[in-house]
Structure formats: C-alpha cells, structure tokens
Amino acid sequence: MTDRWKPNATVAAIIEQDGKFLLVEEHTPEGLRINNPAGHLDEGESLVQGCQRETLEETRHLFTPTHLVGVYMSRSQRAANGTEDAQDVTYLRFAFAGSLGALVPERQLDTGIVRTLWLTPDEIRASAARHRSPLLLQCMEDYLRGQRFPLDLIHTDASVIMLGAA
C-alpha cells in the first residue's frame, strides 16, 4: 500500500501593534531565523486553540484570534547532512489576526525560541534572508492589505475535540 501524502497543518499569529509586528527569533537547522509565532496543530484542538497555544508557548503572551487572514501552502526542502536525512515537507498554514493579551511571566519560552521582537513592515521586508518561512512576509502583506475573514468560516466538529480528550 502506498502512503498517502499529507501536508503538515500549522497555525500562525499575525500580531500588529503600533505599526510593528510581533515575531520570534528561533534556532533552526539553517541557523537563527525569525518567524511569526507559529507551530503545528496538535491532535484534539481546533485551529483557533492551536494558534492560542502556539502563541503562548512562543511569546509567553495570551492571544485571542479575531479573524482568519488566510490559508497558505509552502514547501521546504532540506538536503541530508551528517546527522539528518533529507527532508521535503509541505506546510498548510492557517494565519490568524487578533489581539495580544497579558504576558504570563512564569512561563518559559518554548525550546528553540531565543526571544520575541517587534519589527516594522520595512524591517521584515529587509530581513527576508532570515525568515524561517516564506509565508511570514506573505501573511504580513495580506494583513496590511486588510485581508480578513470571519472565524465562523472555520468549523471544528465536536468529534475532533472529543478525540483529543479520549
């Protein structure tokens, strides 16, 4: 039987305040990179819940998604090196805009996250060589153009949440 191809479902927070965007700087196999607070969707959570969790883990801030900015796909190819096999991964990213909540000071940043930083759109554009994902820039540009969709566009059946609780 042939394995069925499946993209990796990820969520990302597009957080803008006072003309700057909240990003994270993180260690990757390619070195130190910047990205939106983002990560993989976990079993048993909705897309919104996943985005809230990832934002908290990577920034120590609560986050309330208010709109879906867009759904994006990208592909990452990494050659084999002495310690890792070659990788060819397709990501399916659900990017959310929303409001940044309180800092939870007792939390530690997720493994690999060095720090959070606030950058202007021009600083983000100028740092493209340091982006972890090409989607960082695309999501920001779509957000700046005013692209927003209501959260009720997304439906999570109760079976997803119930499966995670089992």
From TrEMBL:
Cofactor: Mg(2+)
Record Pfam families: NUDIX (PF00293)
Key words of the record: Hydrolase, Magnesium
Enzyme Commission identifier(s): 3.6.1.-
Source taxon at top rank: Bacteria
An example Gene Ontology molecular-function term: ribonucleoside triphosphate phosphatase activity
PROSITE patterns assigned: NUDIX
InterPro entries linked to this entry: NUDIX_hydrolase-like_dom_sf (IPR015797), NUDIX_hydrolase_dom (IPR000086), NudJ (IPR033713)
All residue ranges annotated as the Nudix hydrolase domain in the record: 4-141
Coiled coil feature spans: none
Protein family (similarity comment): Belongs to the Nudix hydrolase family. NudJ subfamily.
Subunit field text: Monomer.
The name this protein goes by in its record: Phosphatase NudJ
Gene: nudJ
